[in-house]
Amino acid sequence: PVKVTKICCIGAGYVGGPTCAVVALKCPHITVTIVDLNQSRIDAWNSPDFKLPIYEPGLEDVVRQTRGRNLFFSTDVDKGIEEADLIFVSVNTPTKKSGIGAGFAADLNYVELATRRIADVAKSSKIVVEKSTVPCRTADAMRTILDANSKPNCRFDILSNPEFLAEGTAINDLLKPDRVLIGSLQTPQGIDACNSLASIYANWVPKDRILTVGLWSSELSKLAANAMLAQRISSVNALSAICEATGANIDEVAHAIGFDSRIGPKFLKASVGFGGSCFQKDILNLVYLSESCHLPEVAAYWRQVVEMNDYQKRRFSTRVVDTLFKTITGKRIAVLGFAFKADTGDTRESAAITLIRDFQQEKALINIYDPQVPHEQIWADLAEASPDIPLAATQKQVTICASAIEACKNAEAVVIATEWKEFCDIDWESVYAHMKKPAFIFDGRIIVDADRLRKIGFKVTVIGRAEAL
Ligand code: NAD
Ligand code: UDX
């Protein structure tokens, strides 16, 4: 197997950045260059005061230790490719917005452009690693493109090495992964390439956690893992609706079923709906794959996970309106949290966006506070969610606030959309004093102590619990 000394990562996003920063940290003998076409993103990665383009606990520390030592960020994609022995392709693969498979299939344009660039530029053999989440058999397409365009004496081995990190815990997930999965062709060359990549991870990951499988299994395992994780949340959210109707408590139910060692306690938190750039996209991708394989029942099964999530978000905003005497027109609602989960500034598919869109349609006034999401990002997301409303009108209806306390001032209702830890420590007495009465709280993340808040005077509504009488 080739001993890798130079790695290039194409795509400096949420995956490429943290992943390769950790490779650089753990492999000082390897030079890692992360390249991207987006100049401002690369500038941020290179910023002298470490104002990195993504917020991820622990990331800055890793970049401080490695940047300029054996970790480099650049927009010179061609140079990065030319110099590397091994190339991670870590570009985005969003859901297609138009054309064949629109709304379901992954848009592979960025993967293809990156692959063609590798074929055009490479003057020596390379190991090309799919890091992006892609539909099953994408590696085949990459190989065909590379083989058809390569120069003499250039060999390309394609590996699949999907990333399982979750945002907000990415650095820990990368330092101590449950497993690293590598898929390769089961040919001598494929297995050699697989061993080259495995020996990089072996610098910090125990050998029994490095799983090697066939290419297509590796690609499908990534979609399968995300589909099953999302399915757990949709299952628990479906149960939360039954709890609200019957008087059972979803946290107690989740606790009870999680004690079954076959089910396990993790990832059973009912919520206002899952968000993030992966779950919905990857399930839709799996739905499309099932349909392409003429398996409509399988497609319908997985599609229901996303439909349940849409239902959960809709159900929550309807509950807010119903509880506020069936109208929120002209009422001020404070939305705490805009990111799709705590400890990230990422807003892709965040449930908060859907809720705020619904509140806007009901002509409410909305105050938003999130400790990490940049204001421009909030405006961009709201504009995209309500293309019919001019931004100027949205900016009259919506105010972005500098703190949770400020957001709640003069509001009739507080809606908790993200489980930021600081929302557990809010001075609710003071919030109550400055709100309109009756003062309502809607907890979409099950983080507040409802009984205590009721004692203060709040009317409290929690996901997966019936209204208190
Ligand atoms: P991202 O949008 O944050 O980053 C992708 C980057 O690739 C962008 O900065 C873009 O400018 C760059 N890029 C696109 N085409 C390029 C090209 N031809 N040359 C150079 N740069 C190019 O996306 P992400 O969240 O990092 O996700 C990347 C992939 O990893 C996706 O397939 C995603 O499904 C998968 N994934 C994401 C997560 C996550 O938590 N975000 C976790 C596991 C897997
Ligand atoms: C997910 C996968 O966990 C990760 O393995 C994969 O690599 C990328 O996709 P991510 O989307 O970053 O990671 O975060 P995750 O922690 O999975 O949360 C996804 C969404 O589900 C968030 O909106 C979160 O709030 C929600 N969630 C999670 C719940 O509502 N309840 C839970 O019990 C867990």
From TrEMBL:
What this protein is called in its record is: Nucleotide sugar dehydrogenase
* Organism the protein comes from: Pluteus cervinus
**What is this organism's lineage?**
Eukaryota, Fungi, Dikarya, Basidiomycota, Agaricomycotina
